[in-house]
Design brief:
The protein is mainly α. The chain has helices at 2-25, 29-49, 53-78, 91-107, 120-136, 142-150, 152-172, 190-213, 222-239, 242-248, 251-274, 289-321. It has twelve helices and no strands. The chain starts with a helix and ends in a 6-residue tail after the last helix.
């Protein structure tokens, strides 16, 4: 069995290397975007082999899913081909890359060997979470316990970074709503896609809700659920029209909901302080610490999912609304 796993690892790593080389050498931006999605799917498979299912889920949903869609929308603004530039010597970039790689390798020399059972993470960090989280948090999915409770500050920072990315995009290009545009200028084959999308979208949304509220027991959580929910609306926009999607999910409402998600997360911490605990200390939110942890994680995960879903939809609307590149 170990030989089979080793063979799978070698094949996946070789495919990653080949995909990377192809991305560097190809000039078609559309092909590059497709290959980056393939790269993310390969990375997700490697994470599954490493038993990091939550990370694999995130890589597949964010890396191969929403990121690919957003980059395709960006191509509508920038064009499908790279601009021709004069050829430069490859010597200087090679020297910079070699020096950077040498420094990175040197920085790993004092790290514990890979899979070393005596490494601090195996002797101090992991046992603490494995032994104590079932009684302190009481959630079967230990990854959720770590992300939403033990390192809740870091997760809140990630949500704020996502929200800050939205602010940057809206500040630079904004969202152009073409309210006077015709809504249905599809070719004859488009109705088939519309029927299929109407069939699939309810199941996508249902799956997003499952991932949102089942993250305590299995892989999932607010980040993955938010991306999946946004994909449902994006699919609607791609098969119908931009304006149809904006009528279904108005940007002015999405902006408020994105802000609300961040406020829900931070507000949970403030409520914890008002009840006599520390910031994001869920223990004080209920009559006993375990129930308090459950309530706190449920609320902040909802805030994360709300912010991520709205941010992804708004960024997509911003890119696609500028796709015609008209002033």
């Amino acid at each position: 069995m170990s030989n089979i796993n080793l063979l799978i690892d070698v094949v996946l790593l070789a495919m990653l290397v080949l995909t990377t080389i192809a991305i560097v050498r190809i000039e078609s931006l559309f092909a590059i975007v497709m290959l980056t999605g393939v790269f993310s799917l390969l990375a997700a498979n490697i994470f599954i082999i490493l038993d990091a299912v939550d990370v694999a889920f995130t890589e597949a949903a964010v890396g191969a899913g929403i990121s690919t869609v957003l980059m395709l929308a960006t191509i509508g603004i920038t064009g499908y081909e790279q601009k021709r530039r004069r050829k430069i010597s490859w010597v200087a970039p090679l020297i910079v890359v070699t020096i950077t790689g040498a420094v990175l390798v040197y920085g790993t020399l004092d790290m514990p060997a890979f899979t070393d059972p005596e490494a601090p993470i195996h002797t101090h960090v992991a046992p603490r979470y494995i032994n104590e989280s079932p009684t302190e948090v009481g959630i079967p999915n230990m990854v959720t316990s770590v992300l939403a409770s033990y390192r809740g500050y870091d997760t809140m920072g990630e949500v704020i970074v996502v929200f800050a990315a939205l602010i940057g995009v809206l500040s630079l290009i904004g969202i152009r709503e073409h309210k006077g545009d015709p809504k249905h200028l599809e070719p004859p084959a488009r109705p088939v896609l519309q029927v299929m999308s109407k069939f699939m979208i309810p199941f996508i949304i249902l799956f997003a809700l499952y991932v949102q509220f089942h993250g305590d027991f299995g892989p999932g959580g607010g980040f993955q659920a938010g991306v999946i929910f946004a994909v449902a609306i994006i699919l609607y926009a791609l098969t119908f029209s931009q304006q149809d999607a904006m009528d279904l999910a108005p940007p002015r409402i999405l902006k408020r909901l994105a802000s609300l998600g961040v406020l829900i997360y931070g507000g949970t911490g403030v409520v914890s302080m008002l009840k006599g605990g520390n910031f994001l200390d869920y223990n004080v939110l209920a009559h006993d610490p375990v129930h308090g942890q459950h309530y706190g994680i449920l609320v902040i995960e909802f805030g994360v999912g709300l912010t991520v879903a709205c941010v992804m939809m708004l960024i997509f609307f911003a890119f696609i609304s500028r796709g015609d590149r008209n002033p």
